């Protein structure tokens, strides 16, 4: 009946299975083994070598930094040492703040802090800080230098007229022998239980200082 039905449709009806060679008709698609999901990742080509890639080093970035602006400036002509370098001190923000407070409360813009190095003390030299009055640069002795704490960057490199105006702000005056002995140090303002005071700290030329820090010997 099936063959007659096929002929009535106009030809011989063949299935895909009928077109296969006899040697393959005994196999079905269900008989072909399928790799399991777990085994797929472990199949390697025979003789193939596994390549190991060394870990890449962590890339590090460096950022350029600029030298911080020197806040303490000369109001007088800079003085040079024997090597031709400027002899400088630094006024700390804490000391500048206290100097500004004194100027305002006393209503005396000519007020300045004088720092001197004198012979004495248990180690040969000692610091001495006293009040001074400087109304004009012309009031200074020939060997004296004035340092000013510049809060405004624009004040650096000010002309003489501007420097006269800056004398109304926080300033420190030193004579040349004292400046030679304290160059590179800082003028700070410290507050302790026993009192508060201006003092010279971090002097690179001082050694064998006493416990209170007021007496020291100089490096030769």
From TrEMBL:
SUPFAM superfamilies: HesB-like domain
One example GO MF annotation: 4 iron, 4 sulfur cluster binding
Pfam name, any one: Fe-S_biosyn
UniProt feature, compositional bias: Basic residues: 43-54
Chain intervals for the UniProt region annotation (Disordered): 35-56
Domain Core: 87-213
Classification via InterPro entries: ATAP_core_dom, HesB-like_dom_sf
CC terms in the record's Gene Ontology section: mitochondrion
One of the GO BP terms on file: iron-sulfur cluster assembly
Family: Belongs to the HesB/IscA family.
Protein name: Core domain-containing protein
